[in-house]
């Protein structure tokens, strides 16, 4: 079963994987901010859950490949919020698709393919 985002199955053309980014609290070691400090600064609130999806889009033609990429870009540009469901069935609720990035040139052979990376985050935005 391929991964889906907000009910859209855009990733089943090729292989992909989803990895969790660092979790816990945000911290800055000494001498990393504008002011010199000898102390580690820890931000008290936990980091938002963040994921990265990497994979390949695969199509029979270059125009079909760009149609797949354009559909994903449209979701990223509108900052869509939805559930990300991994191929294993694990669900990451209320994730925001932040960015789609091609990760190399288009490979042309029997099929046409393009590597990509997608960043997701669950934004902890307080209600007004």
Molecular structure report:
The chain has 128 residues and is mainly beta. It has one helix and nine strands. Strands 1, 2, 5, 6, 7, 8 and 9 form a seven-stranded antiparallel beta sheet that branches. A hairpin with a 3-residue loop joins strand 8 (107-108) and strand 9. The longest helix is centred in the middle third of the chain and has 16 residues, at 62-77. The chain is elongated. It starts with a strand and ends in a 7-residue tail after the last strand.
Label this structure with key terms.
44% strand; 128 residues; 1 helix; 12% helix; two-stranded antiparallel sheet; seven-stranded antiparallel sheet; mainly beta
Query: Count the strands?
Result: 9
Radius of gyration, in angstroms, nearest whole number: 18 Å
- Cα(first) to Cα(last) distance is 38 Å
Described by strand count, sense and barrel closure, the largest sheet is: 7 strands, antiparallel
Helix content: 10-25%
Number of helices: 1
> What percent of residues are in strands?
35-45%
- Overall pLDDT score: 84
Judging from the principal axes of the Cα atoms, what is the shape? elongated
In sequence order, what are the helices and strands, one letter per element? Answer: EEEEEHEEEE
Low-confidence stretches: none
**Which secondary-structure class do the elements indicate?**
mainly beta
């Amino acid at each position: 079963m391929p991964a889906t985002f907000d009910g859209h199955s855009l990733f089943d053309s090729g292989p992909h994987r989803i990895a969790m980014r660092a979790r816990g609290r945000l911290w800055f070691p000494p001498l990393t901010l504008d002011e010199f400090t000898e102390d580690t600064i820890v931000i008290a609130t936990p980091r938002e859950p963040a994921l990265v999806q990497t994979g390949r889009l695969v199509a029979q033609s270059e125009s079909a490949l760009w149609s797949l990429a354009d559909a994903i870009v449209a979701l990223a540009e509108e900052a869509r919020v939805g559930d990300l469901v991994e191929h294993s069935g694990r669900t990451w609720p209320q994730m925001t698709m932040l960015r789609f990035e091609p990760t190399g040139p288009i490979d042309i052979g029997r099929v046409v393919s393009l590597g990509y990376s997608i960043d997701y985050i669950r934004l902890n935005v307080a209600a007004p």
